[in-house]
Amino acid sequence: MTDLTCTNLSNHLGGLAAAALSELGVEGAVAPALAPPPDPEMGDLGFPCFPFARALRRSPQQIAQDLAEILAPRVEGDPVASGVGATGPYLNFTLNQPKILGLALAEMRANPGRFGAGDAGGKVMVEYSSPNTNKPQHLGHIRNNLLGEVVSNVLEHAGNTVIRTNLINDRGIHICKSMLAYDRFGEGVTPAERGVKGDHLIGDFYVAFDQSFRDEYQAWLTTPSADEAFASWQSSPAARKPIQSWKKAQKKAGQPQEPSPEVLRGLFEKNFKDRYFNTDSELGGAARELLRQWEAEDPEVRALWAKLNGWVEAGFHETYARLGIHFDRIDHESETYKLGKDLVESGLVEGVFHRAENGAAVFDLTRIGLQGEKAVLRPDGTSLYTTQDLGTAVSRFDECDVEELIYVVGDEQNHHFKVLFGILAQLRPATAGRCHHLSYGMINLPSGKMKSREGKVVDADDLMDEMHTLAAVAVRERWPELTEAETAERAEAIGLGALKYYLMAFSPQTTMTFDPAESLAFTGKTGVYAIYSYARTASILRNVGDVSTDLDCLAALSSELEFAIIRELATFGNVVDHAALERDPSRITEWIWRLSKALAAFFSDKDHNVMHTADPALKAARVQLIWAVNQALATGLGLLGITPLEQA
Q1: How far is CA 639 from CA 116, 150, 247, 356, in A?
Q2: CA distance 552 to 314
Q3: Exposed, middle or buried: residue 125 (CB in 10 Å: 0-12, 13-18, 19+)?
Q4: Which domain holds residue 75?
Q5: What mean pLDDT is predicted for residues 39-67?
Q6: How far apart are CA 524 and CA 592, in angstroms?
Q7: Residues 200 and 81 in one domain
């Protein structure tokens, strides 16, 4: 089989299994998914036979035995399989490990940097980052940025054409809050004058607006108007949910009771804030007026907006560059919201939307299996997030001819995307099933959650600085001979590598806590451990010099420690495929850790010291094994955006 590679090894063996299943009577048998068994003594790659029991009316154990009998004579002449056997309900192939390593080496040399690459052939757009231009990026953005970048890398490695896309949210009421605060309190200050990045400067004014609004709201709560609003609120539908939530919490605590007047007042003050902003607040009214002027393209408002957004985006680019994030396409909400409004107007004519009593354009959510209505245009004709998202999605399908749109957005927006995709399918039926929300959980530091509107944000730039500082301490302890410049360079690679690996080591849906100190450990499942593993291979290869390309010497490999490494190399193609299909980078981090552990066991054994191996053929084979690990780790770390170290 001339086209057999290490990457398509599982497909080859799965094909043998599918042919045997067909002979047993499984109609339309497809290649089963192969995986390493829990015990290497069982074999190297296998699969359970439970799924075929009903069709064949036999026990899984019997099916495994029958398959083993059919396949035994066929693997005798197979280029990679050296045996097949049944262990209970599992069928397992045993592989010729030196030949597997030969396939891996040939693949690496033929296509440098493409080990494990597939040929999926799809065209996918991945939207990630999507920051607002009213504040700097924070820890949550780092997870979003990395998740989008790494998933894009993995999809591309699996053989897809990927368009990395950023939608910058540069318009809306939140942007107007920063603009208003700058106009009232900024006195024309520039980032250069303040000595800060532009996104940090504007973020300060966003916090200033929020504080001013809090002060205004607290003052209003002492007025007769607030007392009148409270009296009306208690019997309004708006009070029902917070009161019920309070009662539920009391009941859960074993203290069921009716809320006192003081409790009701507290619930009112907590839950009336948004309504106050949209009705009685002077600051809220001024911000909404700015939004109306912006949409009317008032020259002065647009000039202020362009200046502040320019500062913020320049700051974003610095953050992206340091984190290793890049995009093929950058959209701006300010450029797409009108298309969304046009879609809504067309949808009103077609009956997809209807006018509510207050004049808003709304969508009946029962049409897509949900409850209530969703506004897509305000009564004053201004657009909402959903309006813009509809227009942006349609433009992407029309302009880029993508098969799939993936949105990397936190799980707090799960409902938003259900609504968005449902409405989009009503407007453009051809998009049904082609939009996907890659939802991810919240990320915390040990000290707690982030609250950016209150100024308690875990700033992305500050966090990267902290990682660099912590890594520099570790670097000086381990490599005291380095110069300050060398220490700084290594600290940057280790600090950011530790951050990236740690965040990607959790499945996206997991709500996680990021511990900077834990991420910098030189042992365990960390980026530092992986980086150091690569550096050890690089050091050995420098000491060895030229690496032989003779594959005949690989037959000298015979130990379980050597074979354990080869088994991990053999699974990388499958790992990439699963990581791409599941949009889950933790598959890559897990594989890197397993390969690094197998390498560490090899290095730790005195009988496997490469430099002191006496047999020339065995030494040449072991050097090629180390070279293969070096290349594989470089590929895996590269998918994560991690820069490996060449010096151990």
Answers
A1: 11, 6, 49, 49
A2: 55
A3: buried
A4: 9-95
A5: 94
A6: 11
A7: no
Residues 6+ apart with CB under 8 A from 300: none
Residues 308 and 174 reside in one and the same domain: yes
The Cα angle at residue 292 between residues 290 and 294, in degrees rounded to 5? 65
Task: Write down the pLDDT at residue 92.
Answer: 96
Residue 57 has pLDDT above 90, yes or no: yes
* Continuous segment of H or E residues that includes residue 163: strand 161-168
Strands 443-444 and 435-440: unpaired
Comparison of pLDDT for 301 and 392, the residue scoring more: 301
Q: What span, in angstroms and rounded, lies between the C-alpha atoms of 384 and 48? A: 51
Position 636 pLDDT exceeds 60: yes
Name the residue with tokens 């009070």.
239
Assess if residue 107 is contained within a domain.
Answer: no
What are the tens digits of pLDDT across the range 78-120?
Answer: 999 999 999 999 999 999 999 999 999 999 999 999 999 999 9
For residue 104, the 8-state DSSP code is H
pTM for the full predicted model? 0.91
Q: Would you say 181 and 212 are in contact if contact means Cβ atoms under 8 Å apart?
A: yes
Quick one: pLDDT at residue 448?
A: 57
Q: How many residues does the chain have?
A: 648
State pLDDT tens for residues 335-382. Answer: 877 788 889 999 999 999 999 999 999 999 999 999 999 999 989 887
Task: Give yes or no: residues 307 and 205 share one domain.
Answer: yes
Mean pLDDT of 313-326: 98
Averaged pLDDT, 545-568: 95
Q: What is the DSSP letter of 32?
A: P
pLDDT digits (tens, 9 = 90+) for 495-554: 999 999 999 999 999 999 999 989 999 999 999 999 999 999 999 999 998 999 999 999
Other Cβ atoms less than 10 A from the Cβ of 472: the count is: 18
How far is residue 377's CA from residue 391's CA, in Å, rounded to a whole number? 13
Q: Which amino acid is at 70?
A: I
CA R_g for the chain? 30
For residue 432, pLDDT over 50 is answered with: yes
* 176 within domain boundaries: yes
pLDDT in tens, 172-204: 899 999 999 999 999 999 999 999 999 999 999
pLDDT at 39: 85
Collect all residues with Cβ–Cβ distance below 8 Å to 230 and sequence separation of at least 6: 264, 265, 268, 272
- Name residues whose C-beta falls within 8 Å of residue 453's C-beta, 6 or more positions apart in sequence: 206, 207, 210
Residue with tokens 């082609």: 434
CATH code of the domain covering residue 27: 3.30.1360.70
Distances (CA, A) of 460 to 6, 144, 145, 468: 39, 11, 11, 12
- Give me the DSSP letters along 265-322: HHHHHHHSHHHHHHHT-HHHHHHHHHHHHHHTT-HHHHHHHHHHHHHHHHHHHHHHHH
Same domain, residue pair 180 and 298: yes
Tell me which of 95, 123, 144 is where a domain ends: 95
Domains identified in the chain, total number: 3
Tokens for 180?
């208003």
Contact 525, 589 (CB under 8 A): yes
Q: Residue 222 in contact with residue 251, Cβ under 8 Å?
A: no
Contacts of 96 (CB under 8 A, 6+ apart): 80, 81, 82
Q: Are 383 and 337 in contact (CB under 8 A)?
A: yes
Q: What confidence tier does 452 reach under pLDDT thresholds 50, 70, 90?
A: very low
| pLDDT at residue number 449 | 52
Q: According to the model, what pLDDT value does residue 382 have?
A: 77
